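Annotators were shown the component list below and the corresponding predicted structure, then asked to write short factual statements about the assembly.
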Amino acid sequence: MLKLPGLIDPHVHLREPGATHKEDYDSGTSAALAGGITLVLSMPNTRPPIFDAETLDLALNAAKQKARCDYAQFLGAGPNNGDWNKNRDLPPRAAGLKMYLDSTFGELRLDDMTLWMPHFQTFPKNMPVVAHSESRSMASAILFAAIYDRPVHIAHISLKEEVLLIKAAKERGIKVTCEVCPHHLFLTAPSPLHPSPSGRGDGGEGRLEVRPRLATQEDVDSLWKNLDVIDCFATDHAPHTVEEKDADNPPPGFPGLETILPLLLTAVSEKRLTLDTLIEKMYTNPKRIFNLPDQPETWVEVDEDAIYEIKAADQFTRCGWTPFEGWKVKGKVRKVILRGQTAFEDGRILVPVGYGRDIRQEKS
Ligand code: NCD
Ligand code: ZN
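Structure shown to annotators:
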């Protein structure tokens, strides 16, 4: 039996408020626990989006009643909430600020760089800023971090050019960190040479829609090769129902909370990754980058030798599918202890709704 610290996922979409048919704080945090994750940072592209005191309260009230693991909620950067000097009390109550610099699911998007500036200037420098920024907008986000002398965390990198530019920026001392998602490490986009998607067991093209898009084998290889440049593993757990994914205009996003650990443990067993690297990127680094407190008496017990098939039918997420259906993995979460209580054991969630704590609340 392998013992790991309670793992941290700094990038999840729990869909509350507004789209609880896809997920809510109860189902999403149950999925986290089943995946060996005891602390999640929740994204603000909900309906309504989380961007002021009223909407933050909406999300935090739902979380307080329903969460089973610990959490914090991100604020979203909008066109009208850029002056954080007017709202100094709000950032410390949140996980940090999420900036959507490229288009994706939801309404939060900052098209114009004049809209980025006040957020970079006035969001407290000791609080995390996360940018959804792909390719050239990622380069711009890094330039902003340098100009305004504040850290920026780049969400879900997927491209060779991105990992190479972050490497160069870090070498110059720019305060940039980044995360990568399992789907960008284990899946590639369908191509003319390889028309069948590498995600086996999927229904159709709609299932493969995700932002950033799945990339080429060369990109995937480059992420693995430059793993030391990447600070965190994050799921970008973005559940949409099977019906939505298989209909016209499928929304982008994959569930991931229950598959990240078995996929990465399988990579450990194949010697593509060390266990120390896994712990660093799923615990030590996110804890430091996002300034997260200790979770006392918290750990995860894993059967390293258990081999099994990933099945959507076994998952707690409400979305009803996984891009990794049928994948054979090695390493199964047996038990999760959260703050002294057994929260998950052999497929069952054992803590009630409301057990999860707002880690930003604890601090103040
Ligand atoms: C996310 C979602 O569905 O909320 N989708 C996705 O493809 N990653 C939005 C996002 O994180 O960009
Ligand atoms: Zn996301």
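Statements collected:
1. The chain is about 30% helix and 20% strand.
2. Residues 196-202 have pLDDT under 50 and may be disordered.
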